[in-house]
Amino acid sequence: MRIVIESPGFKADQKLLNFVTKKLQNLAHFNETIIEGNVCLKVDKSGTQEDKLCEIKLVVPGNDLFATRNSETFQKSITKAVNALKSQLSDLKAEYKGGAITD
Asked: Which of 3, 42, 70, 96 is at a distance of 20 to 30 A from 51, taking alpha carbons?
């Protein structure tokens, strides 16, 4: 899986980039057909404490999956978004097994 990480407005440090990469690579265990993971890390200017935003788009044959979560740290936002995608991948796998997916 190819991983693209963007952080408009700030420069993400290597530790954060490694954290994102590790989390996304773990998603491959749920679906080995994931082609690409696009991650965008942003700081929300809403003035709330939960201002760290993570958006993840997974490119999967037939479907693209998307999750966005915010929290007080990027690590928590990333973890929440990855967990949401795990659920979506699980649902997608169940649909494939049930034969409900048609092109």
From this structure: 3
